[in-house]
Amino acid sequence: MSLENIKKETKYIFVTGGVASSLGKGIISASLAKLLQARGYSVTIQKLDPYINIDPGTLNPYEHGECYVTDDGAETDLDLGHYERFLNISTSQANNVTTGRIYQRVIERERKGEFLGRTVQVVPHITDEIKRRIRILGNEGRYDIVITEIGGTVGDIESLPYIEAVRQLKYDIGQNNSLFIHLTLVPYMKASGELKTKPTQHSVKALLENGVQPDILVLRSEFELTDEVKHKVALFCNIDREAVIESIDVPTIYEVPLRMLAQGLDVVAMQKLHLPIREINLDKWKLFLDRVKNPETSVNIGLVGKYTELPDAYKSITESFIHAGASNKARVNLKFIDSTKITPENLVELEGLNGILVAPGFGDRGIEGKITAIKYARENNIPFLGICLGMQCSVIEYSRNVLGLKDATSSEFDSPSKNCVIDLMNEQKEITNMGGTMRLGAYDCKLTKGSKIYEAYGKEEISERHRHRYEFNSEYRDILEKNGMIAVGINPNSELVEVVEVPSHRWFVGVQYHPEYKSTAVNPHPLFVAFVKAAIEHDKDNK
Ligand code: GLN
């Protein structure tokens, strides 16, 4: 790609990590993006993941936490969720690229003969493809700044082609148009009572070996860093003193942008990118943060799922509760409840809750526990929200216990000869590939006036993101409706049932889609807001 193709105004920020993984590159990237956005710049963030999977769609949540889904149906890394929640913008497939995808394209081109007989190599072919992917967002001409977060840790074999690609990119687009931020860990040695900077120095050295001098260092630490420590790091790593920023643990991730602002991370970035320093407006953010930190009331909501020891598996749901709690001036005490442990004889975990959410999921593990929890919520008039598999389980529960179809089930985990109230659509029955074969991304849905869900959204037409294979089996719609479970949200094109409600219950809603993917800090999702409100009312009525 030639230089002319790059929109002159787009600046690129590259974020790398060193010393250890899980330092929170995503949060730092999102925080810097938030500050630049609040100064009037249009910003997007991209994540490059150095693993060979084409996308995280086929990854077990134990490996990388939740799989986040974008409007255009991309199954992506959970960091994209942070980007959207912080920036209140939509991301897309272009915002998440894996090594698998890079190689896939290069190999496809090789098979087509596009390399004209040349030897296809990591440098330049893989690195060129990485550069092309980074520039795709910039070339759209929509963004003043593109922040690219490189997954993994500097020094890993997998990360090398990425570091080389961004080194070249800086060379291609010029010093003033790009910026390197490196995030490291400064560990505390209890025995000597010291904060140690040597791992940071080594990590910067590893970057230098690859031809990259970072412009800004962000140091993760459990404790505040003294000026002396910051000076030392600046001197040894060849970084301006004001470009050494500390990032200490804070009670909520939503505070990180303000911590970064206080140290001038955004100002240093703008200076180094030769961008004018504009006024900042963070009013909405501050209002939200103030409500998160100073709730007037609290409610207890149970999240029933099978990954309870792994909160990252339900990241978007837990964040949605923070947003919806703030909007209700309440703190949501979220209790993770292991669905595999719930039985009709063991319901103690469900006692005292003001709301029960049954989580999305795949496979049969924990299903009976989810169904039991739904029965408990339904019979005890506790506000209930079922998401995706949670909605499907609510249909199974109702069919079994209200309609009396004792063998009601889903063909995902049971024999098709039973009453499969949840089933595949006919055209899906041929599919054998696991990756990318689900109903993914945004679909329209029409809500019935007068329903709880309509009341929550305040409008009839909505669009929400999906990630599932199985559907409400419409053959059972009539009998369910006659017995009190009503389909109140329908896809206007396919007629598929997207939302069910039990109007005789105080608040019982199941949605086939994933509302949690669209909740953001300054724009909490209406369904979560309504659910938390119902939980607050339940709490009041039961005091
Ligand atoms: N396993 C169910 C399906 O594929 C639900 C998926 C989900 O909860 N995301 O339809």
- The low-pLDDT segments are 1-8
Radius of gyration: 25 Å
Question: What's the helical proportion of residues?
Answer: 25-40%
Structural class: alpha/beta
Q: What is the chains' assembly state?
A: single chain
Instruction: Spell out which ligands are present.
Output: glutamine
State which percent range the strand residues make up.
Answer: 15-25%
Spatial ordering of strands, largest sheet: 13-12-14-15-23-22-21-18-19
Mean pLDDT: 93
Spatial shape: globular
Number of helices: 17
Major sheet size, sense and barrel closure: 9 strands, mixed
Overall number of strands: 23
Q: What's the N-to-C terminus distance?
A: 66 Å
Secondary-structure blueprint of this entry?
Layout: E1 11-17, H1 25-38, E2 43-49, H2 61-64, E3 68-69, E4 75-76, H3 79-87, E5 96-98, H4 99-111, H5 122-139, E6 145-150, H6 160-173, E7 178-185, E8 188-189, E9 194-195, H7 198-209, E10 216-221, H8 227-237, E11 244-248, H9 256-262, H10 265-272, H11 283-293, E12 297-305, H12 315-327, E13 330-338, E14 355-358, H13 367-379, E15 384-387, H14 389-401, E16 409-410, E17 420-423, E18 439-447, H15 452-457, E19 461-468, E20 471-472, H16 477-482, E21 486-490, E22 497-501, E23 508-511, H17 526-541
Parallel strand pairs: 1-6, 1-7, 2-5, 2-6, 7-10, 10-11, 12-13, 12-14, 14-15, 15-23, 16-17
Antiparallel strand pairs: 3-4, 8-9, 17-20, 18-19, 18-21, 21-22, 22-23
This protein binds glutamine (GLN).
Overall description:
- The chain is an alpha/beta fold.
- The protein contains 17 helices and 23 strands.
- A nine-stranded mixed sheet has the order 13-12-14-15-23-22-21-18-19, with helices on both faces.
- α13 (367-379) links the parallel β14 and β15 (384-387).
- α1 packs parallel to α3 (79-87), α11 packs across α12 and α12 crosses α17.
- It is globular.
- The N and C termini lie far apart (66 Å).
- The model is unreliable at 1-8 (pLDDT under 50).
- Glutamine (GLN) binds next to β19.
